[in-house]
Amino acid sequence: MQLLQVIPKIFYSDIRHGLELFIDTLGFQVAWHDPNPPFYVIKRDTVTLILSQEPEIARLDRPEIRISTDDIETLYKSVSEKNPRLLHPNSKCIKTQPWGLREFALKDDSDVCVIIQQPTNE
């Protein structure tokens, strides 16, 4: 028996912020959608996320999630061209961290932070 994947659920007051970040900017695709209340299962490669419009929960806390890639340069170039305003002000460029990861970050209009990472040994 093995655990295979963590699938975070991210709550939004306005689901459009999540759709802009994950679908328009990072290239996720909608796998399933329920319009009322807005609820999305989105996928890209082996990553699955759930986006849900629930304003009362979204007010409580804004998440930070990490997504690993095997080609941070290509993803960074794509994000920078599609939607540079979503690059996090504290991590706009790829930076090698002391803990062995190359990283850059995104932040949507509702303060959800997504850190894109790649181990330095790849």
Topology:
Elements: E1 9-12, H1 15-25, E2 29-35, E3 38-44, E4 47-53, H2 55-58, E5 64-68, H3 72-82, E6 95-96, E7 101-107, E8 113-119
Parallel strand pairs: 1-4, 5-8
Antiparallel strand pairs: 2-3, 3-4, 6-7, 7-8
Describe the structure concisely for a colleague.
The protein has 122 residues and is an alpha/beta fold.
List keywords for this structure.
about 120 residues, alpha/beta, 2,3-Dihydroxybiphenyl 1,2-Dioxygenase, domain 1, 4-stranded mixed sheet, about 40% strand
Task: Describe this structure as you would to a colleague.
The chain has 122 residues and is α/β, with parallel strands linked by helices. The chain has 3 helices and 8 strands, in the order βαβββαβαβββ. The radius of gyration is 15 Å and the shape is globular. The protein has one domain: 2,3-Dihydroxybiphenyl 1,2-Dioxygenase, domain 1 (Roll), CATH 3.10.180. The strands form 2 sheets. Strands 1-4-3-2 form a 4-stranded mixed beta sheet. It has a 4-stranded mixed beta sheet with strand order 5-8-7-6, with no helix packed on it.
- Note the main sheet: 4 strands, mixed
CATH evolutionary superfamily:
2,3-Dihydroxybiphenyl 1,2-Dioxygenase, domain 1
Count of domain modules? 1
**What is the SS-derived class?**
alpha/beta
Helix content: 10-25%
**What is the radius of gyration computed over CA atoms, rounded to a whole number of angstroms?**
15 Å
Distance between the termini: 28 Å
Strand order of the largest sheet: 1-4-3-2
Shape: globular
Sequence stretches where pLDDT stays below 50 over 5 or more residues = none
Our estimate of the beta-strand percent is: 35-45%
CATH class: Alpha Beta
Remind me, CATH topology?
Answer: 2,3-Dihydroxybiphenyl 1,2-Dioxygenase, domain 1
Number of strands: 8
Give the overall average pLDDT. Answer: 94
CATH architecture label: Roll
Total number of helical segments? 3
Order of helices and strands: EHEEEHEHEEE
